[in-house]
């Protein structure tokens, strides 16, 4: 049985609204501590975070489009690490994916991973905008490039967020070698549990408190 505490330990408690203030981030951190989540995820301009306690600090790179030069993503990742990020969530270049230029996709991820050093790297593939074959190939390239996780979505793409189908496909592709983060549009306890059942090992949530309140203790 998956308990509320189990689910809390998988959550990246997330605040990526462009208008978020430092006070909003401080409130997120305090709420994250009370909920017992794994991490907080904020925009890079909000780093460093004051008094994160035992929380892992995550941020985003090339967010939300992924359509910036690799050197810019790498520089952003390097700066984020210098500012105290424990984990980096980068967005792939979806144009390169759609063009079938997976060598370029792999190079993009590799360069960001090099900039991250020992800091954990999650690769956002924007699964709702991809075909199954594209999902599988991007996941393979993320693994080859040295990524630690593959992640479904930014939560900002009009195609949608995480789906059980995508999470299952991603999990089957990377096995237990990489983690799988489900993120984007997960708003109920039932949905969160379904993502874990499909193979998610992390959850990116903004409605963490409400979701956890719906899960049996």
Structure description:
- The structure is a single chain.
- The protein is an alpha/beta fold.
- The protein has one domain (4-213): TIM Barrel.
- It has nine helices and eight strands.
- An eight-stranded parallel β-barrel has the order 1-2-3-4-5-6-7-8, surrounded by six helices.
- Helix 6 (132-144) links the parallel strand 5 and strand 6.
- Helix 5 crosses helix 6 (132-144).
- The protein is globular and about 45 Å long.
- The model has no long low-confidence stretch (mean pLDDT 97).
- InterPro entries: Aldolase_TIM, DeoC, DeoC/FbaB/LacD_aldolase, DeoC_typeI.
- One of its GO terms (molecular function) is deoxyribose-phosphate aldolase activity.
- It holds the Pfam family DeoC.
- Its main location: cytoplasm.
């Amino acid at each position: 049985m998956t308990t509320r505490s189990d689910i809390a330990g998988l959550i990246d408690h997330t605040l990526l609204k462009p208008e978020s203030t430092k006070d909003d981030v401080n409130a997120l951190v305090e709420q994250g501590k009370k909920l017992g989540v794994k991490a907080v995820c904020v925009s890079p301009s909000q780093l460093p975070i004051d008094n994160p306690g035992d929380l892992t600090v995550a941020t985003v790179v090339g967010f939300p489009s992924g359509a910036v030069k690799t050197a810019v993503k790498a520089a952003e990742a390097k700066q984020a690490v210098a500012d105290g990020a424990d984990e980096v969530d980068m967005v792939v270049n979806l144009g390169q994916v759609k063009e079938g230029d997976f060598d370029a996709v792999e190079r993009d991820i590799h360069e960001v991973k090099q900039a991250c050093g020992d800091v954990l790297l999650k690769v956002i593939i924007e699964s709702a905008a991809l075909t199954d074959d594209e999902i599988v190939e991007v996941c393979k390239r993320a693994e080859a490039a040295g990524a630690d996780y593959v992640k479904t979505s930014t939560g900002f793409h009009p195609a949608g967020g995480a789906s059980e189908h995508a999470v299952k496909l991603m999990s089957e592709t990377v096995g237990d070698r990489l983690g799988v983060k489900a993120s984007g549009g997960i708003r109920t306890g039932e949905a969160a549990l379904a993502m874990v059942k499909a193979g998610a090992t992390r959850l990116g949530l903004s409605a963490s408190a409400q979701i956890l309140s719906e899960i049996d203790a």
